[in-house]
Amino acid sequence: MTVDEMDLVSQLKEAAPLRPAAYERARATLRAAMAESGPARGPEMVPVPGATPVREEGFSRARKRRGTVGTLGKVGIGAGIGAVAAAVAVVLVATSTPRSAAPAGSSTGASTGSAAQPPTATSPLMTLAAHIQASDTSPLPGNASLVIEDKKDSAGKTVEVVYALYTDSGILYTGDGKQTLMSSITQPMNPANNETYRWAVSARNAASGDLATARLRMINTFPNCFGLGLSPTAQKKLRANCWAAGAAQRREKMGDKAPTKQPTAKQVQSEIDNTLWVACDNALSWAGGDPRIREGVLRLLSTLPEVTVANSTTDGEPTLTITGGPGLFDDGSYHEVDTVDAKTGMPVSSMESGGGMAPSTQFFQFSRVTLADVKAGKF
Amino acid sequence: MTSDAELIGRSLAGDGQAFMEVICRHEVAVGAYLARRAGRAAAEDLLGDVWVAAFESRRTYDQSFAEARPWLYGVALNRLRHYWRSRPAEDLVPDVTSLANGWDPWPTVDARVDTQAVLRVAMAKLRSEEREVLTLVACEDLTVADAARVLGKPAGTARRLLHQARMALRNAPEVAALLTDLNNVKETQ
User: Fold this and answer.
1) Is residue A134 within 8 angstroms of chain B, CB to CB?
2) Fewer CB atoms < 10 Å away: N or C end of chain A?
3) Which whole number is the average pLDDT over B74-95?
4) Which of A82-86, A140-144, A191-195, B95-99 has the lowest average pLDDT?
């Protein structure tokens, strides 16, 4: 076969390949730009009916999201969010389950249910966040936080183990064992498809500054139909558009029981609070080794009127028990309880029960490591 | 598999992760394109800028085209032009000595360097748009129609430019001699 000029030019195809870190850096640049641009507004928020969320690469584990069928406000987020991941596009669903009032004795102040609640001056979560900030003076050893999550059933039997490595540069790797974690470092999942990564970034940013703004940003980590931050007119239009766009899905899922009216303001507020709870819970569980993330999560949780805090003791050490009450979830029998170290805010355990599911508890072991050591299996 | 066009459409509807999937599909190709045009170091710096520029201009994407790679090349080329305009002239002279350094492990590297050096000199004499079409088709494996999309030109214009580029190369004395040598070697093998 005769060589021609095109064959010669094609030899110039060779080029030193870009290094893997360069691709990741470029993606991070894009993510930052996307975060700066904020969620899409107005008509752009009308979801594509039947759109399937982008599946998360690699291992993923969703923290439970208890909410309405078809979580209000999630527009095409990555999958890995449990049963709700099967819900497509965005649906506003009016539920018939009455929301319970905030439990008596709540240490987070009175509940109005219509807006973010400013934390009380004596909120133990804010106090702990301030203590963490004051203690966060020395550089942490290593360059990453490793958490081993051991999920046990009510009989104390391990049903699942998850390894997560959150680097100080904000990259999250996960695996269901040491080997898969090590493999994930060489073949990392795309953080853009990982909800926890994005929530961790928002939580970290909430460690300081205006809390109302931080709350808004955490809720809006992903595009949604809440319309928070929009003018009342634009918000109303957005929610109406989402409601209309989700009609077919509601009929498919609920048949004759599909609601015909948009959710009430109180129901929408409950969905918003649920979104914030789930985001904080995930960020704390996976990336809680970073003190700034713990600070941010605690500050954000203090704005939820349905969250109650109590002093407790775990294995002889003082802890705080943070309960997400039924008001956060659509099922009145369901609740979640997170236990954190009372001095450091480090997650100790997270229990969920009710809602027709077998109760289970995740126990966390956090440690500081280096990425190189984990990659070499030295952990 | 969901097309790039559909993912971009979802991105415009608020699904940020959809756009991330698009760029992940093409990041190796676009990164290699940047590296071929500006060297690896510059390519690693430019890639993120290309993604941001693509994200910000995704409304202009013609969703009748299922695959976004040509469009991304177009965004990358615009970014490259901006990069070149900001560089001192002497930085833009191709450094063929780098071809013999570093990562190319093959023992015939010297011969390849000679061939590529001859070719680069000849290509430098082409009109820029002729060179662009030629490299997009020969190095990026695009069709002429897709190369036209990258450059924002009609397909007929791109075909003409490619023809002109090929004729110019074929008639360049150094390239003609090279082709003669190569084809003579093949005949004797």
Assistant:
1) no
2) N
3) 70
4) A82-86
Contact B14 A47 (CB under 8 A): yes
Write out chain B residues lying below 8 Å of A2, CB-based. Answer: 183, 186
The predicted model scores a pTM of 0.52
Q: Residues of chain B with pLDDT > 90: what percent? A: 33
A54 inside 8 A of chain B by CB = yes
Determine the Cα–Cα distance for residues B174 and B48; give it in Å rounded to an integer: 38
| CA geometry: angle B154, B156, B161, nearest 5 deg | 95
List CB contacts of B27: < 8 A, sequence separation 6 or more: A23, A26, A27, B47
Residue A292, H or E segment? helix A291-301
Distance of CA A255 to the CA centre of its chain: 30
The residue whose two tokens read 């961790």 is A200
Judging contacts by C-beta atoms under 8 Å, the chain A residues touching residue B44 are 18-19, 22, 25-26
Residue B20 to residue A193, Cβ atoms within 8 A? yes
In this prediction, residue A337 carries a pLDDT of: 92
Distance CA B12, CA A79 (A): 19
Q: How many angstroms separate the CA atoms of B2 and B45, rounded?
A: 29
Residue A364 banded pLDDT, cuts 50, 70, 90: very high
Q: Which residue, among A77, A71, A89, has the nearest Cα to A246 in the 3D structure?
A: A89
Please count the CA atoms within 13 angstroms of the CA of B86 that sit on its side-chain side: 9
Coil, strand or helix at A379: coil
Top pLDDT among A56 and A177 is at A177
Residue A117 pLDDT grade (very low, low, confident, very high; cuts 50, 70, 90):
low
Q: Is the pLDDT of residue A207 over 80?
A: yes
How many helices, marked H, and strands, marked E, lie in chain A?
A: 11, 8
What is the token pair recorded at B16?
């940020």
Closest to A285 measured CA to CA, from A82, A149, A84: A149
Cβ pairs A/B, distance under 8 A: 170
Residues of B in contact with A29 (CB under 8 A): 48-49, 51-52
Contact list, A4 vs chain B (CB under 8 Å): 166, 170, 179
pLDDT at residue B47 tops 90: yes
